[in-house]
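Postdoc handover notes: sequence design on the structure in folder B. Input tokens:
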């Protein structure tokens, strides 16, 4: 989608990728909320998790989570995956993304910020 920042990052037109597979890409969050804060996004544009995302896209996103958490050394220590969806969740970027947070204890609450 034109003028979508995450479309541009995911397709290598700007910024730096940590990892990519066929349908998903991962990069560091600009404003990290934990020691490790990685965003995993589909290469194609979907507004959010209820925007008709094909299962193979979700599978590639999960594969990317597996890969980047292993690489970042947080697979065993634990991490949190968050998908803000819509206004009440405070979704600011309307290109589907998983926040992958870890590298330190995150607290027991579901909300991190
Ligand atoms: P949301 O509130 O939509 O779930 O989260 C959007 C996230 O994207 C925020 O954590 C914000 O820091 C991050 N972000 C926004 N613009 C950029 C950008 O241009 N580059 C990167 N790497 N992260 C961004
Ligand atoms: Zn997009």
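Designed sequence:
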């Amino acid at each position: 989608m034109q003028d979508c920042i995450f479309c541009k990052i995911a397709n290598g037109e700007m910024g730096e990728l940590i990892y990519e597979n066929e349908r998903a890409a991962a990069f560091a969050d600009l404003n990290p909320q934990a020691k490790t804060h990685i965003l995993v996004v589909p290469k194609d544009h979907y507004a959010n998790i209820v925007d008709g995302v094909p299962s193979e896209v979700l599978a590639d996103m999960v594969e990317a989570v597996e890969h980047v958490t292993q690489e970042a050394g947080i697979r065993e220590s634990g991490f949190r995956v968050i998908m803000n969806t819509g206004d009440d969740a405070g979704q600011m970027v309307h290109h589907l993304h998983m926040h992958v947070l870890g590298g330190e204890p995150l607290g027991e609450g579901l909300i991190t910020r």
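Context for whoever picks this up: The first strand starts at residue 19 and ends at 20. Don't rerun without checking with the PI first.
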